[in-house]
């Protein structure tokens, strides 16, 4: 056996392949991290998740009695209709509902089907104070200017 092969001292050159691999991993991780910082969360979500968030925003606005958030979560056609509530009506109706029934709870949203800029989903919900009175509401969601909004049709 050759004596020099076993007794050879290690140098930084022996670590070169490991350092290159580590550099590639660091660059890849940095690229992924930067893409998450630059790209908004809504763009990273699947279309189904975006539809669920739009529905959740509308119901959360009702729970919070937040008229501006509610308006922002509803399609333009509905907001401009004569039947759309004004702020005082919205506040009165939702406070009364909350006092009588508690918060709206959505345990699940199922049956999401997306066709272009329109989606349908079944919203399973009940009031916090009336968990035995479960409801299922067919809901239409449309994409307007890149954002999904709840719509009556």
What do these coordinates show?
- With 153 residues, this protein is of the alpha+beta class.
- The protein is built from 7 helices and 4 strands.
- Strands 1-2-3-4 form a 4-stranded antiparallel beta sheet.
- A hairpin with a 2-residue loop joins strand 2 and strand 3 (130-144).
- It starts with a helix and ends with a strand.
- The model has no long low-confidence stretch (mean pLDDT 88).
List the helices and strands and how they pair.
Blueprint: H1 3-7, H2 16-38, H3 41-44, H4 47-64, H5 67-72, H6 76-79, H7 87-101, E1 104-115, E2 118-127, E3 130-144, E4 147-151
Antiparallel strand pairs: 1-2, 2-3, 3-4
Short structural summary:
This protein has 153 residues and is of the alpha+beta class. The protein contains seven helices and four strands, in the order αααααααββββ.
Could you list the spans in which at least 5 consecutive residues all have pLDDT below 50? none
Number of strands: 4
Q: Could you give the order of strands across the largest sheet?
A: 1-2-3-4
**Sequence of secondary-structure elements:** HHHHHHHEEEE
The tally of helices reads 7
Sheet/helix structural class? alpha+beta
Mind summarizing the main beta sheet? 4 strands, antiparallel
Shape: elongated
Mean pLDDT: 88
């Amino acid at each position: 056996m050759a004596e020099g092969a076993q007794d050879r001292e290690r140098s930084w050159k022996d670590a070169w392949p490991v350092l290159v691999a580590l550099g590639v991993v660091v660059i890849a991780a940095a690229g992924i991290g930067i893409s998450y910082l630059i790209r908004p969360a809504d763009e990273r979500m699947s279309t189904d998740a975006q539809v669920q968030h739009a529905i959740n925003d509308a119901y959360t606005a009702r729970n919070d009695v937040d008229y501006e958030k509610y308006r922002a979560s509803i399609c333009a056609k509905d907001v401009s209709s004569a039947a759309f509530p004004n702020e005082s009506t919205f506040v009165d109706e939702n406070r009364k509902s909350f006092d009588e029934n508690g918060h709206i709870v959505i345990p699940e949203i199922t049956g999401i089907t997306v066709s272009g800029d329109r989606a349908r989903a079944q919203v399973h919900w009940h009031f916090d104070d009336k968990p035995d009175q479960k409801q299922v509401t067919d809901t239409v969601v449309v994409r307007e200017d890149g954002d999904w909004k709840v719509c009556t049709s």
